[in-house]
UniProtKB/TrEMBL annotation, chain A:
GO molecular function, one term: transaminase activity
Pfam families membership: Aminotran_1_2
Protein name (Swiss-Prot/TrEMBL): Aminotransferase class I/classII large domain-containing protein
Calcium in keyword set: no
Parts forming coiled coils: none
Keyword annotations from UniProtKB, A to Z: Pyridoxal phosphate
Similarity remark: Belongs to the class-I pyridoxal-phosphate-dependent aminotransferase family.
Domain Aminotransferase class I/classII large: from-to ranges: 42-435
InterPro entries given in the database record: Aminotransferase_I/II_large, Ethylene_sulfur-biosynth, NHTrfase_class1_PyrdxlP-BS, PyrdxlP-dep_Trfase, PyrdxlP-dep_Trfase_major, PyrdxlP-dep_Trfase_small
Domain of life of the source: Eukaryota
Keyword NAD: no
From TrEMBL, chain B:
Pathway info: Alkene biosynthesis; ethylene biosynthesis via S-adenosyl-L-methionine; ethylene from S-adenosyl-L-methionine: step 1/2
Family classification: Belongs to the class-I pyridoxal-phosphate-dependent aminotransferase family.
Protein's name in the database: 1-aminocyclopropane-1-carboxylate synthase
Stretches assigned to the Aminotransferase class I/classII large domain: 45-425
Top-level division of the source organism's lineage: Eukaryota
Organism this protein belongs to: Daucus carota subsp. sativus (Carrot)
EC number: 4.4.1.14
Length: 465, 494
C-alpha cells in the first residue's frame, strides 16, 4: 500500500516520531490530575499559557451581548442581529475581517511599546502560526532549497517548514558557552556547511523571543543577523509568537525595530523586502484552539501570494468576530498584557527557585512559557544516549514530561525545556517537589555508585599491595 | 515591486492560484456596481456565487434558543477555557460524532460514518489540497470529468505540483461520465508518460446540479479498482438534493460492493454549501484508508477548525429534531427556487440541464451564440454582465468542452432579487429572439445585404461593448469569493 500513497504520506517527515511527541503520548496514557490521578504524569512539555483565562472570561461575562452574534450597539440592543450571524457565516474573504486586522496590528504595535506601527493591510491571516510558517516557506523557497535555523529550536518546525514544502533546514549551532547566543561566526559556518551540501540558502528562520530558551534576542545578535542577511541577500523570517510573554528586562526588540535602529540601513534598503514576521494568539493570549496566526511583511508580492494561499487555512469568521471585539477595547488589551506578564514572571521565578533548591540551574531568561533547564550534571555521560536515559527516568520515576534538548536539536546533551504556564500553582509546586526528590535520589545514587567504585578500586589496590 | 518578485519562489509568482483569468470581469462588474434592492436596484446581480442563503432564519432561531452552544454567551462562557486551549488535531470528539451523524442523516441514514475517520481541514479547499499531498507526488495526475469547479485547478495543483487531466463529458448524453471517456483520458495520460493516481468526482455535480446514478457510480468504482487508482468523491452538495431521483453516496456503493478495495475510496465534505457556513471553514476528509486518515490528520495541523466553531457545530448538528427539520425545509426551499427559475426560463425557450441538486442550474444559451466558439460564449457573457447586469459563470470557466452553457446560482439571494433576476434574463432572451427574428425577415427580403444586416444585428446586441481586458486586481472569482464591499463587516470599525 506504501506506493499507493505519496512520498509525503508514507515517510516520517511529519516529524511526529521525535521524542518531543513521544513524551506527550506517555503523558496521555497516564495524565496527572490533582484529585483523580495525583500520581499521574505532569505535563511540562506543552508550551501553553493558562494563566489569564479569568481575565478573558470576565470580559466575556460583561460583554456577552456583544460577542454572541449581537452587534455592538452600545449595549442598548439585546436582540439578535439577524443579519450579523448571516454575514459572518457567509464571510470567507481571504483578506480577513478589517476590524480584526486593525486590532491585531494595534496589538502588535503595543507589544513593541508603540515604537513600531504595523499596517493592517500588510497582515495575512492564517490558521495558526503552523500555517503561517509553512505558507512563507512555499513563498520564499523552492523544494530542496534551505533555511538556516539557530539551535536549539521548536521541534514543530521540522514539520511546518519542511514536510510538504520540501525545504531543508540547516542548523546554526549555538552553544552554552555563550548562553546559546547567535553569533556571526556560527551563521557563516552554517552557510558554508550548506554550500558544501550543495544547498541554496534562501534565508534564516529565527524565533524571537526564543523557544526553547525563553530569552529575547539582544541588539547585537539582531545586528549580526541583519548584517548577514544583507550581505548574503537572503530573507529573515522572524517568528515573534512569544513577543507578548516578555515579563522581565531586557525588553523585547523585534526584527522591525532592530532594522529601524540599524546604523547602516536606510529606509528603502531592499532588506525591508526580505523581512517577514510570524505571529499568533496561541501563546500571548493562550488561545491555541482558535487557530489565529498571521504573516506580516512589507513585501507586497509576498502579501499577495500568501493571501491567496491562506485559502487553504482561513481563520473562522466566527472567531475573527469574537476576537475583534475582545481586542477592540484598548484598555482591556493593555490590562491583559500587563497582568499576564506579571503572572508569567511569578511562575518563572517559582520554577527557578524550585529548581535551584534541587541543585538545578536554568539559563537566565525573561520571556516565554518555559525555562531551559541544565541537567548536565545528572547525566551519566556527556552523550545523547545518556540524555535519553535521563529523560526516560524522569518520566517513569519523577512522572514528569519534559522536553529533552535533543528533540529541539540542541548540540549539547543535558538540557531540557520545562514549561510552567500550563498548570495551576499547586501542580507546579508538586512538580518542583518531584524534581527535587528525583535530583536528590539521582545524586545519592551517583554518590553510592561512586563510593562503591572507590571502594572496589581501593580493595583491588590493597590486594595488589 | 519587480525586485520583490525576484525573491519569491516559483509557486508564489506563477499563475497557479488561478486568479489571473478573464473571468474576473464578472466579479469586477459586480464589485463596482453591486445590486441592492433599495439602494442600487439597477446594479449587477450576483449569480456566480454558489452560496446557500435560504435557511438562515432557521439557524438564527436555533442559536437564540441555544445560547450554551456559544462560548461567548453567558450560558456558555464556562466552557471558554477548555475550548480555547484545545488544539488536538483529532478535534473535539463531540464535533466528530456530530459530523458523522449529520453526514449519515443527509444520506437518509442508508449508511453510517465512523467518527474516528472524520479528519478536519481548512474548508473543502484545504481538504482537496491535503488529498493531493497524500495521494500523489509532484508530476502525478488526477482525472476529473468536465465541466468541473474551477477552484480544483488551484486546490489540487498549485502548491502540490499535481496535474489535472480532463475526462470530457458531452451534452449529447447529458454530460454523463462514460467508460469510453474515462478510458480515453487514461490512455492519453499513459501515452504522455503521466502517472495517473486517481479520479476526482463531485457528486452532486458542480456546475451541473445533477447526481450520479447507481450504475454510473458502480462503473466508476469498477474503473478505479481495475486501474488500481484512488477515487476522491467531493460530496459537498449532498444535502442540496431537493427531489428525486434519490441521492446515492459513494458510501452506499461501498456497503454493497464487497469486492471494492476500500483503501482507494475517500470523501471530501464541508458545511459551506449544505448549511451555508463558508465563513466558518469546516472542511472534512473522510477516508476508508487508515494510512490516509493518519497522514491527513497530521496535515490537518495546517488548517484545523477553530474550536469555537467546532463547539457550535457539535451542539447544532447533534440536535436531531432541529437538523431533521432543517434538512427537509432546506430541500423544499431549494426545490421552490429551482422550479421558479426553470419554469420562468422555459417560457422564453431557454432550457437547462435537468437537475435535482446544487445551488445553481446549468443554463443552455447555445442558441444565442453567434457561432459555437469559446469567443462567442465570452462575447455573450460580457453582454449578460454589462447589459443584462447579471454575473453568471460561463461554461468555459468550468472547462466545458461545448460553448454556450452558463452556471446560474439562485440560492444566494432573497425572493425579490430572484424575481428581478428572472425578469432580466427573460427580457434579454426575448429581445435577442426578436432581433434575430427581425434580422431573418430582413435577410429574406434583402439577400444581397446579408452580411451588413448581421453586422447591424451584432452591433445592436452589443451596443457599446464594455469589454474589459483581463486585469490583475479584484482577487476573487468563483474560487475565493469575497463579501461585497457593501457588507457591513468589510467596513472597519472606528
Amino acid at each position: 500500500m506504501q506506493q499507493m500513497l505519496s512520498r509525503k504520506a508514507s515517510f516520517n517527515s511529519h516529524g511526529e516520531d521525535s521524542s518531543y511527541f513521544l513524551g506527550w503520548k506517555e503523558y496521555e496514557k497516564n495524565p496527572y490530575h490533582e484529585h483523580h490521578n495525583p500520581s499521574g504524569i505532569i505535563q511540562m512539555g506543552l508550551a501553553e499559557n493558562q494563566l489569564s483565562f479569568d481575565l478573558l472570561e470576565s470580559w466575556l461575562a460583561k460583554n456577552a451581548n456583544v460577542a454572541h452574534f449581537k452587534e455592538d450597539r452600545g449595549g442598548s440592543s439585546s436582540s439578535l442581529s439577524s443579519s450579523l450571524f448571516r454575514e459572518l457565516a457567509l464571510f470567507q474573504d481571504y483578506r480577513g475581517l478589517p476590524a480584526f486586522k486593525k486590532e491585531l496590528a494595534a496589538l502588535m504595535g503595543e507589544i513593541r511599546g508603540n515604537k513600531v506601527r504595523y499596517d493592517p493591510n500588510k497582515l495575512v491571516l492564517t490558521a495558526g502560526a503552523t500555517a503561517a510558517n509553512e505558507t512563507l516557506m512555499f513563498c520564499l523557497a523552492e523544494p530542496g532549497e534551505a533555511f538556516l535555523i539557530p539551535t536549539p529550536y521548536y521541534p514543530g518546525f521540522d514539520r511546518d517548514v519542511k514536510w510538504r514544502t520540501e525545504v531543508q533546514l540547516v542548523p546554526v549551532h549555538c552553544s552554552s558557552s555563550n548562553q546559546f547566543r547567535l553569533t556571526s561566526l556560527a551563521l557563516e559556518e552554517a552557510h558554508k556547511r550548506a554550500l558544501k551540501q550543495k544547498l541554496k540558502v534562501k534565508g534564516v528562520l529565527i524565533t524571537n523571543p526564543t523557544n526553547p530558551l525563553g530569552t529575547t534576542m539582544s541588539k547585537d545578535e539582531l545586528n549580526h543577523l541583519l548584517d548577514f542577511a544583507i550581505s548574503k541577500k537572503i530573507h529573515i523570517v522572524s517568528d515573534e509568537i512569544y513577543s507578548g510573554t516578555v515579563f522581565d528586562s531586557p525588553g523585547f526588540i523585534g526584527i522591525t525595530q532592530a532594522l529601524l535602529n540599524h546604523k547602516k540601513v536606510r529606509v528603502g534598503n531592499d532588506i525591508w523586502n526580505r523581512i517577514h514576521i510570524v505571529y499568533s494568539l496561541s501563546k500571548d493570549l493562550g488561545l491555541p484552539g482558535f487557530r489565529v496566526g498571521m504573516i506580516y511583511s512589507e513585501n507586497e508580492a509576498i502579501i499577495s501570494a500568501a493571501t491567496k494561499m491562506s485559502s487553504f487555512g482561513l481563520v473562522s469568521s466566527q472567531t475573527q468576530f469574537l476576537l475583534s471585539n475582545i481586542l477592540g477595547e484598548k484598555n482591556f488589551r493593555k490590562l491583559y498584557m500587563k497582568e499576564n506578564q506579571k503572572r508569567l514572571k511569578e511562575r518563572h521565578d517559582m520554577m527557578v527557585s524550585g529548581l535551584k533548591s534541587a541543585g538545578i540551574s536554568c539559563l537566565k531568561s525573561n520571556a516565554g512559557l518555559f525555562c531551559w533547564v541544565d541537567m548536565r550534571h545528572l547525566l551519566c555521560s556527556n552523550t545523547f544516549e545518556a540524555e535519553k536515559e535521563l529523560w526516560e527516568k524522569i518520566i517513569s520515576e519523577a512522572k514528569l514530561n519534559l522536553s529533552p534538548g535533543s528533540s529541539c536539536h540542541c548540540s549539547e546533551p543535558g538540557w531540557f525545556r520545562v514549561c510552567f504556564a500550563n498548570m495551576s500553582t499547586e501542580t507546579l509546586s508538586v512538580a518542583m517537589q518531584r524534581i527535587k526528590a528525583f535530583a536528590d535520589a539521582t545524586c545519592k545514587a551517583d554518590q553510592i555508585s561512586y563510593q562503591q567504585a572507590l571502594y572496589s578500586s581501593q580493595k583491588s589496590s590493597l590486594n595488589k599491595w | 515591486m519587480a525586485f520583490g518578485k525576484n525573491l519569491l519562489s516559483k509557486i508564489a509568482t506563477n499563475d497557479g492560484h488561478g486568479e489571473n483569468s478573464p473571468y474576473f470581469d464578472g466579479w469586477k462588474a459586480y464589485d463596482s456596481d453591486p445590486f441592492h434592492l433599495t439602494e442600487n436596484p439597477q446594479g449587477v446581480i450576483q449569480m456566480g456565487l454558489a452560496e446557500n442563503q435560504l435557511c438562515f432564519d432557521l439557524i438564527q432561531e436555533w442559536i437564540l434558543q441555544n445560547p450554551k452552544a456559544s462560548i461567548c454567551s453567558a450560558e456558555g462562557v464556562n466552557d471558554f477555557k477548555d475550548i480555547a486551549i484545545f488544539q488536538d488535531y483529532h478535534g473535539l470528539p463531540e464535533f466528530r460524532e456530530a459530523i458523522a451523524t449529520f453526514m449519515a442523516k443527509v444520506r437518509g441514514d442508508t449508511v453510517t460514518f465512523d467518527p474516528d475517520r472524520v479528519v478536519m481541514s481548512g474548508g473543502a479547499t484545504g481538504a482537496h489540497e491535503t488529498m493531493a499531498f497524500c495521494l500523489a507526488n509532484p508530476g502525478d495526475a488526477f482525472l476529473v470529468p468536465t465541466p468541473y469547479y474551477p477552484g480544483f485547478d488551484r486546490d489540487l495543483r498549485w502548491r502540490t505540483g499535481v496535474k489535472l487531466l480532463p475526462v470530457v463529458c458531452e451534452s449529447s448524453n447529458n454530460f454523463m461520465i462514460t467508460r469510453e471517456a474515462l478510458e480515453e483520458a487514461y490512455q492519453k495520460a499513459e501515452e504522455s508518460n503521466i502517472n495517473v493516481k486517481g479520479l476526482l468526482i463531485t457528486n452532486p455535480s458542480n456546475p451541473l446540479g445533477t447526481i450520479l446514478d447507481r450504475d454510473t457510480l458502480q462503473g466508476l468504482v469498477n474503473f478505479i479498482n481495475e486501474k488500481n487508482i484512488h477515487l476522491i468523491c467531493d460530496e459537498i452538495y449532498a444535502a442540496t438534493v431537493f427531489t428525486r431521483p434519490m441521492y446515492v453516496s459513494i458510501a452506499e456503493i461501498l456497503e454493497e460492493d464487497k469486492k471494492c478495495n476500500r483503501d482507494l475510496i475517500h470523501l471530501v465534505y464541508s458545511l459551506s454549501k449544505d448549511m451555508g457556513f463558508p465563513g466558518f471553514r469546516i472542511g472534512i476528509i473522510y477516508s476508508y484508508n487508515d494510512k490516509v486518515v493518519n497522514s491527513a490528520r497530521k496535515m490537518s495541523s495546517f488548517g484545523l477548525v477553530s474550536t469555537q466553531t467546532q463547539q457550535l457545530i457539535a451542539n447544532m448538528l447533534s440536535d436531531d429534531s432541529f437538523i431533521n427539520k432543517y434538512i427537509s425545509e432546506s430541500r423544499k426551499r431549494l426545490a421552490a427556487r429551482h422550479g421558479v427559475f426553470t419554469r420562468g426560463l422555459m417560457q422564453v425557450r431557454v432550457g437547462n440541464l435537468q437537475s435535482n441538486a446544487g445551488l445553481f442550474f446549468w443554463m443552455d444559451l447555445r442558441r444565442l451564440l453567434k457561432e459555437s466558439t469559446v469567443e462567442a460564449e465570452m462575447d455573450l457573457w460580457r453582454v449578460i454582465i454589462n447589459e443584462v447586469k447579471l454575473n453568471v459563470s460561463p461554461g468555459s470557466s468550468f472547462h466545458c468542452s461545448e460553448p454556450g452553457w452558463f452556471r446560474v446560482c439562485y440560492a444566494n439571494m432573497d425572493d425579490e432579487t430572484m424575481r428581478i433576476a428572472l425578469r432580466r434574463i427573460k427580457k434579454f432572451v426575448l429581445q435577442a429572439d426578436e432581433r434575430e427574428a427581425a434580422a431573418k425577415k430582413h435577410m429574406w427580403h434583402k439577400n444581397l445585404q446579408l452580411s451588413l444586416s448581421f453586422r447591424r444585428w451584432d452591433e445592436s446586441i452589443m451596443k457599446t461593448p464594455r469589454i474589459v481586458t483581463p486585469h490583475l486586481m479584484s482577487p476573487h472569482m468563483i474560487m475565493s469569493p469575497h463579501s461585497p464591499l457593501a457588507s457591513p463587516l468589510v467596513r472597519a470599525r472606528n
